[in-house]
Amino acid sequence: MGTPRSAACAGANTASPRFPATWRYRAGCGAVFGAHAMVASDAPLASEAGVEILKQGGNAVDAAVAVGFALATVYPEAGNLGGGGYMVIHMADGRAAALDYREIAPLAATRDMYLDSTGTLTEKGIVGPLASGVPGAVAGLTAALAKYGTMTLAQVMAPAIRYAEQGFPVDTAMHNSLRGNRELIGEFAGDSLFLPNGEVPAIGSTLRQPALARTLRAIAERGRSAFYEGDIARAWTSELQAAGGIITMADLARYQPVWREPIRSTYRGYTLLTMPPSSSGGVTVTESMNILEGFSPMPPFGSTQWAHLEGSAYQRAFIDRNSKLADPAFVNVPIAQLTDKAYAATLRATIGAGSATPTASIGGTLREGMQTTHYSVVDERGNAVATTTTLNNLYGSGVYLTSAGFFLNDEMDDFASQPGKPNMFGLVQGEANAIQPGKRPLSAMSPSVVLDRNGGLLLVVGSRGGPRIITSTSEVILNVLDYGMTLAEAVSAPRVHHQALPDSLYIERGGVTAAVADSLRAMGYGVAWSRGIGLVNAVMRVRGGYEGMSDPRSSGLPVGY
Ligand code: DON
Hints:
It is a single chain. By secondary structure, this protein is α+β, with helices and mostly antiparallel strands. The protein has 2 domains: 27-259 and 372-433, no CATH class; 264-369 and 446-560, Gamma-glutamyltranspeptidase, small (S) subunit (Glutamine Phosphoribosylpyrophosphate, subunit 1, domain 1, 4-Layer Sandwich), CATH 3.60.20.40. The protein is built from 20 helices and 22 strands. The strands form 5 sheets. Strands 1, 8, 9, 14, 15, 16, 20 and 21 form an 8-stranded antiparallel sheet that branches. Helix 2 packs antiparallel against helix 3 (60-74) and helix 13 crosses helix 14 (304-324). Residues 1-11 and 365-370 have low confidence and may be disordered. 6-diazenyl-5-OXO-L-norleucine is lined by residues 369-372, 390, 392, 411, 414, 443-445, 464-466, 469.
């Protein structure tokens, strides 16, 4: 096994001279070392499931699929069968792929389905039976295994089935998550399982999920068709429709994940492989980093200029993201232009040395999401998988299907439910991302792989946090490449975020000195303090093996060997 997290902390619990005294995380605390392989996820049992498969000889894709199904069992707030996600794969033999298993709008979806008779946006796109896109998770995980895996579904799903059938101990993180969301869960049928007798299960008690176990077993035996056709599909779509939902058997039958070419770019000689649309993540990460590449060297970490340049790069890339990106099956997305270095240079030229640029003077919109989970896997051969998956909100729409044992997503809220008008977060999105049947809502998920200057694997990284996925993922990459940070330091470092609108520079509380905040204000920035920006799970190649790091902002745990 890798070094346990507590031991790693005991040995390296030092403050970073680069972090201000007010910053709450240490520099070297939390990384786990494995000489052979590493899995970093938001749930310790899911990371262990991945390592179990790796130790049986599975490759990184086998392990990633095992982690995906395990998260659906032990991390129901974001792991899922009822949601979707994105996977970036880099095989040691040089093959690279991106898998889009994002949900799609049901055939019965309509552009104005979340507006009431007065044209006001309702909450139906966020909570309840109408909020869900057609789930892509099972189709995606099974497709990844079929193309790049080496094991059977039954083998890689064994840990998830065991956790669901035999149960697992409710840990503090899960207890707190259920407690924090008891109102949403209690509104729908999940309460009998997750809030027995109206109570949150005690820490250490065993949680068994027999209905989920049956569904998982059926998928393990019959593959994706067990979820998208036949008895189980009929049962859960009927249950959903009885509650007022619109997903039908026809929606399930036509759902397909899409294999795409990863976005491939360079940053100071390193190679970045990341997720193309229907996620905005890869384009926006690439565009931001292309803008920053022209500043050489980057200003000192934590300085006013650091926050100014990173914030300004994100602000500009998000303006393009919000207006130009959407599902490429429906909208012509200018990927080549937005990821072009010459185009980045024109944006860089609009960044003033000593002042903020009001977003209104350069245009832009944005929206925010709630809960997601990213995991990173590297195997002994150097194959790597970066996966981000989500139900959108914690526990998705809140709708739990007792017939099949899972929560459904509320991914429909990632569409512009009311193009051109502020949504319920006070944000505005463009026509390109309006609701259309069969369309994928625009995502910010950014699973990414970084190769070193010789083309060898360096970093596998991604995050959760809605639009903050883009900034937190790229900041960890920048911290390693520009600032030479260790992985633990790079993930623990304070983060900034700018998303064009609201026109604010978000900074994690305590993440810069008062003097830096004052000078940013003097430059014209609206400085907004943030509790946390993103939750990262990353793996980095180091001498003699791999380091895994789960964000100290969350309860994840890397496991390696
Ligand atoms: O696809 C997206 O961009 C959002 N549904 C992600 C939501 C998210 O990350 C929430 N996590 N904190």
